[in-house]
Every structure is written in structure tokens, then in C-alpha cells.
């Protein structure tokens, strides 16, 4: 069964609480929480206080994706604010130290790859991550089209022997979701597609049926 993590980056920021309720009521498996610093990627998003407030209000799995130049200095605050999983980029300056810190906090540790970073970069990681997040668009802004060559990258990660969870994020819709699942993706991160859906419950049901 494929899982779905809905990205609140695509939600209307005036109604974030309603967005989380919609995600949970639709049967999504996780809330994807994108954090951007305007340096590592060309956008600025949310901070730990929003995560803390959501954690206090909702019983959900919070999958935090740190798109930061120096993720290490933010691991503790996001862990304390309620993250269940924290993913950091292999291209970031403090990747290795951040991964170790995530594990010391007892959280699921994830490694993310930008589109230009090859699958082979994962072979250099000292300890295999619990999850790998493949960016299927250039990170920073929602609403982009999926880069089709990223599907082969996902397949290559599986061919390298990676047995953990693979997530894909960016430009995912009903036209390409099945190809991603067939390539080895376990979790599909949907933003614009989810929030613009006229029947989000049916969308989630369909995603859950992929890979059966």
C-alpha cells in the first residue's frame, strides 16, 4: 500500500488549522512540514512555533523536511516542537552531524536528495537513513511539474539495495503516482494536488490502493 503525506506548504496560510483537519479527515498518513530558510532554497516557509502549535492541537505524524543550509542547529528545536521524523539534505553543510543528532533524539532520520544529486550519493552515508526523500522538482516552490528522470533515480536507489522508506515530493498527481509507486516509492508527498482536489478522501483512497 502506498502512503500519502500532505504538504501544508500548499495550504492557505490563513486557515492552517482547517488544512490540518482536512488532511486528517481525508485519511492521510502524515503531515509533511516543509521548512525553508531562503538560503539553501529560494523561499522562506515555517518555523518551529507553528509545528509546536499543531502538535498541541492535533494527533498526527509530523514529517519535517528541513531545507536549510545548516540543519544541525535546528534539530533540537524541531524535535522539541513535536517532529516525528526529520529529513535533512545530503547537500547541506552539516548533514552528517544532523543525522546523528536526529537519532539521538529518537526520531526517524531521513536523507533528502535534490534533483541534480545522483542516487549514488546515498552510498557515502555512514549509516543508512530510515527514509530517503527524493525531490522530484527543484525545491522551493509548489505547483511545479515532476521531472520524469527522477523516476529512474528512485529505481536506481532500490537497485543499490536500499530497503528503507522512499518518499517522493514535487509535482505528484494521478497521472504519475502509479509510475512512482512502481519505481519503489512508499510515500507520496502531495501538496497542490491534494488541496485542489474536489474529493480528497477519494484521492487518498486511490493512493492507498497503489502498489497492491
Could you walk me through the main structural features you see in this protein, from its secondary elements to its overall organization?
- With 212 residues, this protein is of the alpha/beta class.
- It has a single domain (3-209), classed as Alpha-Beta Barrel (TIM Barrel), CATH 3.20.20.70.
- The chain contains eight helices and eight strands; from the N terminus they run βαβαβαβαββαβαβαα.
- It has helices at 16-25, 48-57, 75-81, 95-104, 149-159, 177-183, 192-195, 200-209; strands spanning 3-7, 30-36, 62-67, 85-89, 108-113, 131-135, 165-169, 187-190.
- An eight-stranded parallel barrel has the order 1-2-3-4-5-6-7-8, surrounded by six helices.
- Helix 6 (177-183) links the parallel strand 7 and strand 8 (187-190).
- Helix 2 packs parallel to helix 3.
- The protein is globular, with a radius of gyration of 16 Å.
- The mean pLDDT is 96.
Amino acid at each position: 500500500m502506498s502512503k500519502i503525506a500532505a504538504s501544508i506548504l500548499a495550504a492557505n496560510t490563513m486557515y492552517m488549522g482547517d488544512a490540518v483537519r482536512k488532511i486528517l479527515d481525508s485519511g492521510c498518513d502524515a503531515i509533511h512540514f516543509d521548512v525553508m530558510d531562503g538560503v539553501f532554497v529560494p523561499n522562506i516557509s515555517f518555523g518551529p512555533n507553528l509545528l509546536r502549535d499543531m502538535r498541541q492541537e492535533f494527533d498526527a505524524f509530523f514529517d519535517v523536511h528541513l531545507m536549510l543550509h545548516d540543519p544541525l542547529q535546528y534539530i533540537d528545536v524541531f524535535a522539541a516542537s513535536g517532529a516525528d521524523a526529520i529529513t535533512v539534505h545530503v547537500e547541506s553543510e552539516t548533514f552528517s552531524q544532523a543525522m546523528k543528532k536526529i537519532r539521538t533524539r529518537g526520531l526517524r532520520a531521513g536523507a533528502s536528495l535534490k534533483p541534480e544529486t545522483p542516487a549514488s550519493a546515498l552510498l557515502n552515508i555512514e549509516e543508512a537513513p530510515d527514509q530517503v526523500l527524493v525531490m522530484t522538482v527543484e525545491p522551493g516552490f509548489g505547483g511545479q511539474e515532476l521531472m520524469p528522470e527522477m523516476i529512474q533515480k528512485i529505481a536506481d536507489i532500490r537497485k543499490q539495495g536500499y530497503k528503507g522508506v522512499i518518499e517522493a515530493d514535487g509535482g505528484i498527481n494521478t497521472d504519475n503516482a502509479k509510475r512512482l509507486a512502481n519505481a519503489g516509492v512508499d510515500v507520496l508527498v502531495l501538496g497542490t494536488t491534494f488541496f485542489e482536489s474536489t474529493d480528497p478522501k477519494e484521492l487518498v483512497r486511490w493512493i492507498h490502493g497503489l502498489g497492491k
